[in-house]
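Can anyone check this?
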Amino acid sequence: MQSSALLVTLVVLPAVGAAVLALVPRLEGRVATTLGATIAVAELVGAALLAIGYHPNGAVYQDASTQVLAAPFGLFWRAGVDGISLLLIVLTAIVVPIAILGAPARHRTRASISWLLLLEAATVGSFASLDVLLFFLFFELTLVPAYFSIAGWGDQRRGPAAAMKFFVYTLVGSAFLFVGILVVAFLHQSQSGGALTFSLTALSSTHLSGTTGVLLVLAFTAAFAVKSPLFPFHTWSPDAYSEAPVSGSVVLAALLAKLGTYGIVRFDITLFPHALVTVGPWLFALAIASILYGAVVAGGSSDLKRLLAYSSLAQMGFIVLGIVSLNQAGVSGAVLLMFNHGVVTAALFLLVGFLAKRTGSSLVTGVRGIQGPAPILAACFTVAMLASIGLPGLNGFVSEFLVLIGFFGAEGWWAVIPTLGVVAAAIYLLWAYQQVFQGELVTPAGTSISDLDWRERSLLAPLLAIMVVLGVYPKLVLDRIGPSVVHLLAHLHAVGLSSTAIGPR
């Protein structure tokens, strides 16, 4: 199979699987789970082949393909991967089969898995798009399966309200994005005198005045900040993460959140470099606010899913810090943290789901001493928790360290402030572990605590292995994303900016 055809297949395969599950009523229960997992594993194999065939020092965008979809409207299929998007496609392919097998729906299994597969197709399509309008279509498509997953399989009382809040927030943010895309495209058409195009490469040459550029980068970033989420656009996320089913929480935190930060990397830096430098200090402020606010509220949460939601808010702040540092250490660390956070948060939400299945609740109160009857569960939680904190030797350390180095290079000693978020994460995560796993065994009446079974262990094993391997040998990934980050930052030099343009004020 040609590489470009492989990339198209990675978008089409889960979409076809979703359609089959939705249209064939006989595929229910275990049959639906088996079929959905088979398609997701095939997607993982395809992503692995794509990664194996990728050459870090080759063309900027590889496995590229272009097809006309609607020429009068300027809509083309333009897709390809670089080291940044490839890493996130691989993350998507890893997380979805684990979500399907690790937290299968107890009712209407066929529909639940169908939505997850559609979400996978839209997510891969978003990461692969080199056409701004095509990206927008995939970006918006993720909203539909995410909404129905939360509303249909989340908490029966609060799930629909959380889903509606998620839907409204995302839709409003995306309206600004859509208007911004149209403005950039029409400005480019008027300047070039050619046909209407939404090609990322073509639009990157559009000349924008200072005010226009700032307004456009704000329009794009509004949508990305909601999706990430970033303070103060985050208020949908604690409700959605906590009320969604476990599989929904896994994909929301591990995958959909990365669409926002990926959008900043791919589109804000490429299309609006000067404007990004102008608004950079404000993004720094919002990122630091996300880190500190997320850490403080996580420390006061008695529900483990809400605690992880606020912890993810803090991690998104770290990612944005690295991106808008606009230097190689910061951006590389941010991209690596996108992947690492996806792996770690998927494992943590999965573990909380396994714990809730045994105790009937994800609340910290009323449960204690779980490590006695469930030592493997406690050990797995410990590894994932320490990776989230950023313990040296696990994957979280290198990415957070690079982000802080990049931020220090851009803002000097202001880097001390986000470091407080690392300390706070250690406090609230260790507190949560102490409350749930240590001490004398206390469980809700009528519950019996068992350790992880072989299926649960096998699902967690690849995630834990990634945490250890990338903690010890991050070069495996950094060598692949490095050339893409260098090329991205070279665009700054091409328009007369330096990679430390956002410096101390």
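Reply from J.R.: I decoded it. The mean pLDDT is 86.
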